[in-house]
Amino acid sequence: MNVSRRPIIWSIAGTDSGGGAGLSADQRAADAFGVHLCPVVAAVTAQNSQAVTQVQAVSPALLEAQLAALADDLPPLVIKTGLLGGAEQVAVVARWVDRLRARGPLALVVDPVLGASTGASFADNEALAAYRRELLPRATLITPNRAEAARLLGLSDPSGAEAGDMPALARQLQGLGAESVCITGGDSADHQGLVLDWLATPQAAGWLALPRVETPHSHGTGCTFASSAAAALALGFVPTDAGVLAKMATTQALQFGYAAGQGRGPVAAAAGFANRPGLLPALSWGERADFSRWRLTPVPDATAPQPDLGLYAIVDSATRVVQVLQAGVRTVQLRIKTPTLPDAAWQTELAEEIRQSVAAAEAHGARLFVNDHWRLARELGATAVHLGQEDLQALGEAGRAELLATGLQLGISSHSLWELARARTLAPAYVACGPVWPTQTKDMPWRPQGLDNLAWWCAMAGVPVLAIGGILSGEQMALAARSGASGVCAVRVLGDDPAVTVPALQQALDVGRSAAQRLRVPALPHPSLASLHGVQGNATGK
Ligand code: PXL
């Protein structure tokens, strides 16, 4: 008997007699993520690949009976709603959300199914009002397309100017109580071949982008996206990462869409989506992204082979830069944090430290990444900088454009899937993945990535990955290298005398590199942030 339990989600939705959308699509998405789905029928549709010929909601009593049957035996971590059939059914769902939340944490994903892609209407005004009144305020995440978002907001002409842009629609939906919103863009216009979904969560807001999959077989796309997000939440991911994973699973499902019947065939969610680098989306930093800059697949450039980062030393003074260079280190980061009250003397000192570090790196033929002070570093002749995501966010669109225009090589921190998705829009020289192990060097909310997530980053990032955080021994160096990391960070482990520590660390790194077996890449990464709504899944990637 398999003792590891799959997280449970309930999908309260409609049946599609044609096997494309609704509960059929939901089941395939749940299977792709390895979660258990309880299919609760709220409505029955008579439809095929060409048209919906009848829709009938189940009675509120029958809906109630299904939920009551599940509540004690198969309690959910996440409820996902699809086609609900009417206001009374919406009310039944809302009551159960409240009852279950009185017992423990529960996330609610609302896919406001108001019409079929074939054109049939699924919701009257009463149902619409019930969604606004009862479901939006309880929703952890809602996943409308643009037209559904506009209808939920009572905008009369969803395609016209009144509907506004997707970020504005999302803000209004959050104003009605939805914690996170993802407005899917599959049925909106492309931007340079990219399908853009607007994702707005407590952690981040941006455009999720992947190239459009050209296929007529897209029936069930919306259901697949919402159920995928629900499954990811059940595995313990926060809504932002759930959005990234849902985009990956749904894009692969579109690639796997197949003909069934005379009309549009179904999409087919399947496992494996999280192991294909081409499916990792980009996430913009803000509303006005310059999509023309985005390189979603790394372009191999024969004239500039990606140099190996190797042992990557992080130090806080030019003196230490010289020490580690003399000890044989060839990639070094100068990290001097700005004091709370930086005065002129500190500025002068900082410039001097950077100037000396640049000269020392040049003399040793080493690469120097200056942390944070990129404008100054650039003035002083540095060619590479390292920036955290909060600093990059704070720069704004204009600041980031200015940074990119300098031609400085960029190292970027990342701690979660969405941060990785966002880092890649800036064509970084590397992305750091951390903290690999628990660390006291920095105070942060992130859980350790472990070697499993590190191996996943290395396989998926499309750029060199730097392992960082809690690396305190040669053994850990070796393990990080075995995960496929291009570089491994040494901070405290450098000790007082790098001349002593560096050779042993270097050797450990080489041992890890030359190990016959790379560490296994998990089918899914594990969550790296405690989920805000308290759902503690058991995503182990196994
Ligand atoms: O895609 C929305 C949707 C949801 N649920 C059912 C459907 C459809 C679209 O056809 O049939 C049952």
SSE layout and pairings?
Elements: E1 8-16, H1 22-33, E2 36-47, E3 52-57, H2 60-71, E4 78-81, H3 87-103, E5 107-110, H4 125-135, E6 141-142, H5 146-152, H6 166-175, E7 180-183, E8 194-200, E9 205-211, H7 221-234, H8 239-255, E10 282-283, E11 310-315, H9 318-326, E12 331-334, H10 344-364, E13 367-371, H11 374-379, E14 384-387, H12 389-405, E15 409-414, H13 417-423, E16 430-433, H14 450-460, E17 465-467, H15 474-482, E18 487-490, H16 498-514
Parallel strand pairs: 1-2, 1-4, 4-5, 5-6, 6-7, 11-12, 11-18, 12-13, 13-14, 14-15, 15-16, 16-17, 17-18
Antiparallel strand pairs: 2-3, 7-8, 8-9, 9-10
Helix pairs in contact: 1-7, 2-3, 3-4, 5-6, 7-8, 9-10, 15-16
The structure holds 3-hydroxy-5-(hydroxymethyl)-2-methylisonicotinaldehyde.
Key words describing this protein structure:
single chain, 542 residues, alpha/beta, UDP-N-acetylmuramoyl-L-alanine:D-glutamate ligase, TIM Barrel, 2 domains, ten-stranded mixed sheet, eight-stranded parallel β-barrel, 18 strands, 17% strand, elongated, disordered C terminus, binds 3-hydroxy-5-(hydroxymethyl)-2-methylisonicotinaldehyde
Please mark out the parts with pLDDT under 50 across 5 or more consecutive residues, or reply none: 298-305, 537-542
Mean pLDDT: 92
Helix proportion of residues, in percent? 25-40%
* Straight-line N-to-C gap: 16 Å
Small-molecule binders here are:
3-hydroxy-5-(hydroxymethyl)-2-methylisonicotinaldehyde
Question: In percent, how much strand structure appears in the residues?
Answer: 15-25%
Instruction: List the quaternary state of the chains.
Output: single chain
